[in-house]
Amino acid sequence: MTFFLNLFNKLAFAYCVAKLKLVASISVTNAKPRTVSGKLTENPERMAITDKTRKNLWAKSGNRCSICKIELFNNEKNKDEFNIGEECHIISGKLNGPRYKENLKDYDDFGNLILLCRNHHKEIDELTETYTEDLLRYMKLNHENWVKTTINNAINKEKENKPKFLTRITSGKELLNIISDCHGYRNDYDEIENEEDAKYIGSVFQELSDYGDISGMVEAYDKVQMGFQLNELLKELDEKGYFIFGEKGIEKMKFSNGESDNWKVATLIIKKKESIEIIKFDLDEQKASH
């Protein structure tokens, strides 16, 4: 667990945006103005947006403009469908910039950034009386919630396609392979009888989701350590009277706007050992009979 927490603190907790080409104009200024001859000027030493913050912003924004919802990057040959997104500051770090405030701790923090298309970036910076700080923060939060809800709804609509039979996962390496590089997770479990079990099962699913989210951003050494930690988790589940079953598959997701895409979805089910739904199947006997 200590390994995971240390690793997680160094990495972006977000889905990686596949095949994403970022084109951004980053202003390099200091968050705190200085005075020269009695006039305020800008210090040109402010740090740029970090890779971790950038991945988080694009992932939680779903590769779409937070205002018009247009897709910001795709691989279509039709140029009319091609659009480049821009990472925009809600509060500008420039002295005379849109909605400028001095002494902001970090102008390039995730909370001060909103992902927009070029047109709406220009619009919010020109119409500052309309697009106030509070309004932009509301639009950012509302858009991120919309992305999360859209993804969850798309996965739920495909529940009828979930596999009828899943094999028991018995090694951390096998479990890591299932949860790695997935766009979404489908979880299920037996009826919970007490609060302690509810908290435990919930924490297991959350931990597996966290491992899956960072799996694409770690080196080979770290993946081996992650496999070991997941193996320990399986032992703990076994001691508490649970088995975990699962697999990873490709599912076609349909969205409310009529678009569809193929997503990798990990299906994970935690069952009590005594569950009548578990079918014991001896592969050695089956092989011997043929």
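(ticket continues) Second input and output from the same batch:
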Amino acid sequence: MTPDRAGQRDGADERLRAAAGVAWRLLVVGAAIAILVWIAIRLRTVVIPIILAVALTALLGPPTAWLRRKGLGRGPATTIVVLGSLVVLGGAITLMIQPALAGSGDLIASVQQGLARVPSALARVGVDQAMFEQLWSRAQQELQQSSGRLVSGAWSSAVAAGQVVIGIVLVAVLTVYFLHSGDRLVQWLLSLFPAASRSSLYSGGTTAYEVLGRYVRGVAIVGLIDAVGIGIFLIFLIDIQLAIPLIVLTFIGAFLPVIGAFLAGLLSALAALVTEGWVIALVVVGVTILVQQLESNLFAPRVYGRSLDLPSPVVLLVITIGSLLGGIAGAFLSTPIAAVVAALLRRSPAEEESAAPKVGAGGGGKVRAPSERGGPVEEAGGASRPAAPPDRG
């Protein structure tokens, strides 16, 4: 064998070994993810409330931190933020949710009538009406079967009702605790791991928390922009009893990227078609597209930053996978989880080093969470101390 051929063979063997190394690592990572997903699904009564509580903490954390920087202790700051949130929630229920529920019956009837008109309208433009009716009938059968399983299954039992109550209580209690003593919980969790790995764990957790916070705040702001922008036109174009539930659905749809905006716009167009005719329905479609384009190109990039740096096909895929694994809750939670995973994968070693707190000399120092003032934690000679003054709450 000539030296050239021997060198080529050695190079091929090296590439094969490298490919095999990558393959088994991917298999290990995939198996780990599958196990985690399986555990999360099995423990969804606990896992979903924890995720929701962390998301609410990321939303309410900034005002809590601001109050603590102004001199309030943990208890007063948390109490003010929680009570203020309850006031806002109560106002939203009184002003929007109750009228939306009252008008939901009319909206459902209008949408059903609008869908009944679609086959004849498609027939006028040359679309096979029989094929559409067959597809629509099949979709209705699937929906009825799913609804039947839902009603006859666990959700109709007292056990499921108890799970819902437990979930709500868990979300409320965990959110209050995270706002009050989340940094202490982080310190305790980090203390369970070897000192050498604490910096990386803290850096990853900080990245995930920041991305989740930007995502939740961004979705709320974008949903509010869409709801107000589209809602103003809906109030003037269609019956207000139909407009209010559509405004609420537009806001909720923002929490389901790509799909939510499309579904809310479709329902608005169908309601306008039945009550006001084709002209107003086309105006509603035009207004919806205009507002959503302005939001997507002007507001969303500034609001989200890189917290939702996901291509639309990826968003559609993760929502589909989330809905298959976790139903409605999985569909809504899949996008923020994917955004967090993408942010963690994009982290560079330099970013990880800069985001991580210092570890005491010789690995003996404790890794501390951010201080009450949100500043860094100062550590020297293996002893750690927060940069903020002592708690008063």
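Agent notes: Residues 44-132+154-359 form one domain. The longest strand covers residues 377-380. Closing as not reproducible unless the customer responds.
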